[in-house]
């Protein structure tokens, strides 16, 4: 049977939560997915434990325009990149087993994303394709042949490049759909954004040149990694460049077939359920064919709301010296213990500044072309009137759309997660979904959600640095959120990240 293809707008609408039509869903613990990929019969190669890393100012890292060329990317550097991208950072003891939280936030701590490495030039590591096993902090060799050329071809690179390695982020859909059902595609992409931001920051920290690719040939890429695009699919690709090397010319080798063990490793539960909506949106966005759903859609990214008065984000006080990376990564957690005390103006402007810098940083890497709009609801913020504001990240300005105390209503819309009412600010990631469809076809949904996740991760890190709490929120009654913000019928809230003063860190 042919899969029904869905546009961004159709998928988002079909997976809305509505207050009076929520069907009860009790988790089937018998089908709980495994959060770690494992490969029987493949011996893992342990990564370097690594020396403690010197802290750097995160804010300055973002402004660094062109990272220094690195003469050699070694196995040790690679180990550092991977440990800064994804590490186990907290343990909870349950009867019979320990559960580990990680350095990137993930909806429901379901960790749907995986990381792969393709390289042919890192010393002390045979050329090939590897899976990063976070549990053992090790690489699992999946292909022991040169695979970088096909990865480059799938991302549209010509014959010669300075690329020496690529890191690929995938999503395993059932890990999230076990809990969130058809809505899970939202979370798989947002989570991928959180993880991708950690990866990019690690490269920026190490001054390693890179390029980020949300557009690639899906089928080629999935086949190369040995995933079928239905249970697990590639979502984002990061190329690592070594500008000190002359352009590398590679011959394409014929790919050898992968063993069955590898092809079956995307299966994370004995009782997986397939949600047609997830395949419908993902496949509609495959291979970057522009969809037809956007024809006649707005040319401007219009949410249907207007700013009454703009103000500058302004000077950011002396807070940034505390924004120390990578220390922050290990301290970041989702916080829900907000107290109704105002966020200091300096801290708030520090966060706004970081969001603007982060959006600008992303713009320089991808053709973001405004795939999302960012706003916030001010609740308890020193010197800032209550209300709904939009941010102009490029111009470092924010403006009031609608005055009034709206975080209480938004808290109700967020499935009555009552602790949200005490957060100082609700950051909002918004999009006109028909605009996304017009510009990128259904793939625009991936661009927007990944971007929202990336900036969401940055808010978490910034809040941690400022001794504030943050928490991502993907669960909301979509129609209520749209009505509170008075968005037009084609626009929606994609993601919310609360931040504020907490009882204890
Ligand atoms: C996309 C996304 C959506 C989330 N939605 C919610 C939510 O609706 N409610 C909530 O309490 N936490 C939410 N969280 C926070 C996760 O539950 C949290 O990241 C996870 O439990 C891991 O904990 P940690 O962030 O402390 O590492 C969300 C996180 C992400 C990344």
CATH C-level name of the largest domain: Alpha Beta
How does CATH name the architecture of the largest domain?
3-Layer(aba) Sandwich
Structural class of the secondary structure composition? Answer: alpha+beta
Biggest sheet strand order reads: 1-7-6-5-9-11-10
Report the biggest beta sheet as strand number plus sense, adding barrel if it closes: 7 strands, antiparallel
Query: Cofactors and ligands present?
Result: flavin mononucleotide
**Share of residues in helices:** 25-40%
**Binned strand content:** 15-25%
Q: How many separate domains?
A: 2
Strand tally: 20
Structural notes for this entry:
- With 505 residues, the chain is α+β, with helices and mostly antiparallel strands.
- The protein folds into two domains: 71-288, NADH Oxidase (3-Layer(aba) Sandwich); 309-500, NADH Oxidase.
- Helix content is 30%, strand content 22%.
- It has 15 helices and 20 strands.
- The chain has helices spanning 8-14, 58-63, 75-85, 148-154, 173-180, 184-205, 218-225, 260-263, 276-284, 327-331, 345-365, 407-413, 433-440, 443-465, 478-485; strands at residues 45-46, 56-57, 88-94, 97-102, 113-119, 128-133, 138-143, 160-161, 163-172, 210-213, 232-241, 248-249, 309-312, 324-325, 373-378, 387-392, 397-403, 425-432, 469-473, 491-500.
- It has a seven-stranded antiparallel β-sheet, with helices on both faces.
- Strand 3 (88-94) and strand 4 (97-102) form a beta hairpin.
- Helix 1 (8-14) packs antiparallel against helix 9.
- The longest helix is centred in the C-terminal third of the chain and has 23 residues, at 443-465.
- The N and C termini lie far apart (52 Å).
- The relative contact order is 0.16.
- The model has no long low-confidence stretch (mean pLDDT 91).
- The site of flavin mononucleotide has 19 residues, from helix 6 and strand 19.
- Flavin mononucleotide (FMN) binds at residues 101, 105-109, 187, 190-191, 194, 333-334, 336, 417, 471-475.
